């Protein structure tokens, strides 16, 4: 028996990699009864008589798992947002950040296409960069991804990590992957002028070796509802609020109308950004509305 990581799943086969190479495996027969579905990114125990005839015997405990793309044990998410075409949206970025924080994944924010901006818009993007860096996130600004060497600043972040690429449609996620690994030749699509969004291309999930790290070659994290997030946990996924929440008068505090709220005090004193807090309130109301619908 041996251990390794699933780096590709395709047509019922799982491709497991370890220091000895790549092994094509099938899942053990009782996995279905135990409701276990091996995922790309899983650390597994397997046995194989040769490189093409192996069986996965056990799947080790995961630290997280995503639905889209179906992948486990992700360390970081590379969030690609454009400054223009489509326009940069802090609301959508904060929605992504909440989901990523909830899955204990480290985000890296890339704002692309800054070469398309005028001076005023460029200054605004620089201010957003400072805002998210103050929260504690890494933020990289790049020119049009298709031909930008600035994206190479991302490479040091990849080493030793399992990464997924996510973000707005039409911002160049596939172009980013093609830039990092040119032999991929992932199909890219122009933004639909009518809909203002990119077209989607379905692919199997595979972890690719890029700069001493592993990167999922399918842009993902497309499920952005709050079904699995509880209202009382939401502030945990805003790091600047989580830092203050322990000083609130009430242990369970929604930071809306409770007295003695340290988060509201920090907001009034300018330590928490008002735009981010408004997004928190919007998400909180969305979660409460979802719960009301499910409780009927």
Question: What would you say about this model in short?
Answer:
The protein is an alpha/beta fold.
Question: Could you describe the 3D structure shown?
Answer:
This protein is an alpha/beta fold and 296 residues long. The chain has helices at 90-102, 119-135, 155-158, 173-180, 239-245, 262-268, 274-295; strands at 2-10, 13-18, 21-27, 43-48, 54-59, 65-66, 71-72, 76-82, 106-112, 138-141, 162-167, 191-192, 197-198, 207-210, 213-216. It has 3 domains: 2-60, OB fold (Dihydrolipoamide Acetyltransferase, E2P) (Beta Barrel); 71-216, P-loop containing nucleotide triphosphate hydrolases (Rossmann fold, 3-Layer(aba) Sandwich), CATH 3.40.50.300; 231-295, Orthogonal Bundle (Ribonucleotide Reductase Protein R1, domain 1). The longest helix is centred in the C-terminal third of the chain and has 22 residues, at 274-295.
């Amino acid at each position: 028996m041996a251990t390794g990581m699933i780096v590709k799943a395709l047509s019922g086969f799982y491709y497991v990699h370890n220091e000895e190479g790549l092994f094509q495996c099938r899942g053990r027969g009782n996995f279905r009864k135990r409701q276990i579905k091996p995922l790309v990114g899983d650390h597994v125990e397997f046995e194989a008589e040769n490189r093409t005839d192996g069986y996965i015997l056990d799947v080790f405990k995961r630290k997280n798992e995503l639905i889209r793309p179906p992948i486990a044990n992700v360390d970081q998410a590379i969030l690609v947002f454009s400054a223009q075409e489509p326009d940069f949206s802090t609301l959508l970025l904060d929605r992504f950040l909440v989901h990523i924080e909830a899955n204990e994944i480290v985000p890296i924010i890339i704002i692309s296409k800054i070469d398309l901006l005028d001076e005023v818009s460029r200054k605004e993007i620089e201010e957003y960069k400072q805002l998210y860096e103050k929260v504690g996130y890494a933020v990289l600004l790049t020119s049009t991804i298709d031909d930008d060497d600035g994206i190479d600043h991302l490479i040091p972040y990849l080493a030793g990590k399992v990464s997924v690429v996510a973000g707005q449609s039409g911002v160049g996620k596939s172009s980013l992957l093609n830039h990092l690994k040119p032999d991929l030749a992932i199909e890219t699509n122009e933004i639909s002028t009518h809909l203002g969004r990119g077209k989607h291309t379905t692919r199997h999930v595979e972890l690719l070796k890029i700069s001493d790290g592993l990167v999922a070659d399918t842009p993902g994290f497309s499920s952005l509802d709050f079904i699995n997030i509880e209202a009382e946990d939401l502030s945990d996924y805003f790091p600047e609020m989580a830092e203050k929440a322990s000083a609130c008068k009430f242990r369970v505090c929604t930071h809306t109308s409770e007295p003695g709220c340290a988060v509201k005090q920090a907001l009034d004193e300018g330590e928490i950004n008002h735009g981010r807090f408004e997004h928190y309130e919007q998400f909180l109301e969305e979660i409460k509305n979802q719960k009301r619908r499910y409780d009927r």
